[in-house]
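Final report, Chapter 2: Outcomes

The project's central promise was a pipeline that accepts a single protein chain and returns its three-dimensional structure in a standardized token representation, suitable for archiving and comparison. That pipeline is now operational. To close this chapter, we reproduce one record exactly as it appears in the project archive, with the input sequence first and the structure output second.
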Amino acid sequence: MASVTALPLDKVAAYSIVIGGMISVIPNAYFARQVFRYTGAAYAREVTQAFYRGESGKFITTLGLFAATFAFVRPLQVIVLFLAYLIVMLLNAVLLATHRRGVQTA
């Protein structure tokens, strides 16, 4: 939504916002896919291994996406990229806290 708003004003800022958001979303999606593959006490070992695998994969994917962005995307507004990345990460935390509070009161 922010990139659509920024598109008429500054094309470089618009795609920097999209890239920054995706650098946050893609590794988190990988982590979630790894972690929620197994459920239940019978799979305790697999769940633990999935957490380690998911977290390390998330870290490596984040580094790789930032490296690829800096290597291949020109021109780029770096400040906008990092702000979008941080805002999406904060939004993730806020939505999780809001959802958790709603579940506890229900």
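Archive annotation: The mean pLDDT is 91.
This record, like all others produced under the grant, will remain available to the consortium after the project formally closes.
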